Amino acid sequence: MEKQKIIQLYKTLGANLISQGQLFLRKAFHVKLTQTITSDYLKSFLTNLGIPRINIYCADKKYMIIDWEVMRDIIAFSWVDREKYLSDNFDCDDYANAFKSHLAEVYKVNSVALSKGVKVYIPSKDKEAYHRCNLILATKNGVLKAFVFEAQNDGYQELQKDVPIKIGDWDYKMNRFEF
Q: How far, in Å, CA of 40 to CA of 50, rounded?
């Protein structure tokens, strides 16, 4: 077989494997919506958790919410955190973008936000840095919750009004959210 035909075969096979893999994942997780909320409701919900309304951007009018236990299972099998960290090439913003896109593409879930302008304190380096992570909306025992999610290592913490966010040994000060 000539080289161009082999390359074309790889491209076709690779695209088909990805498509079939996504189908397998959708069937395996059997993601069901537990709630659909409007962008206004989403903003009010986060405002009640202490996030200024001006710091919340919604690209859609409606958001599909799934159960937190299903989301945790998806997180456990997601390959995003398995990517090697490469400064400026695949770092915090890329992990966060990849996880948000992964949920939208594979499961049609748009209730994962990019958390931008996050300030983290890293005790092991005794420094502050700007960071990007995710915010996940999901239902837990039928109640809407928000979870700060670290796509680099699958760490998370529920966002609660006036409760500091600490994932691992990093302290987080949240800023802007883009859904």
A: 15
Q: Which of 149, 146, 156, 145 lies closest to 133, judged by CA?
A: 149
H or E element, residue 34: strand 33-38
Query: Residues 46, 51, 52, 58: what is their CA dihedral angle, to the nearest 10 degrees?
Result: -50
d(CA 61, CA 171): 32
Exposure string of 147-171, with b = 16+ CB inside 10 Å and e = fewer, is bbbbbbebbbbebeeeeebebeebe
The overall pTM is greater than 0.70: yes
pLDDT per residue, tens digit, the chain (179 aa), is 699 999 999 999 999 999 999 999 999 998 999 999 999 999 999 999 999 999 999 999 999 999 999 999 999 999 999 999 999 889 999 999 999 999 999 999 999 999 999 999 999 999 999 999 999 999 999 999 999 999 999 999 999 999 999 999 999 999 999 99
